[in-house]
Amino acid sequence: MIREVYPQVAAVFLVRNPDGILASHQKLPGRHMAGDAVLVSNYSQLAPSSEEDVVLDLRIRVLVALLSAMDNFYDER
User: Fold this and answer.
1) Do residues 64 and 33 lie in contact, with contact meaning Cβ atoms separated by under 8 Å?
2) N or C: which end of the chain has fewer CB within 10 A?
3) CA 73 – CA 77 distance, rounded (Å)
């Protein structure tokens, strides 16, 4: 349906409200929000910054990194 309305657009990113995203991951975190070692080895921004890193701080950093990557994608186009 989105492609029918915007056929000239190469990609579309749909994003929930960031508060809703963080609330969802509080209940059941995805691997990217839980400091998964396999993902951390490929994406350093998914790693806790210290032993004392608060879980919410890590998740906010991950969310900012993902939103920044989407923004950079559009800037490159």
Assistant:
1) no
2) N
3) 7
Please classify residue 5 by burial: count the beta carbons closer than 10 Å to its beta carbon, then call 0-12 exposed, 13-18 middle and 19+ buried.
Answer: exposed
**Count, residues in the chain:** 77
Look at residue 76 in the predicted model and tell me its pLDDT: 65
pTM, rounded to two decimals = 0.67
Six-digit token string for 65? 């990194």
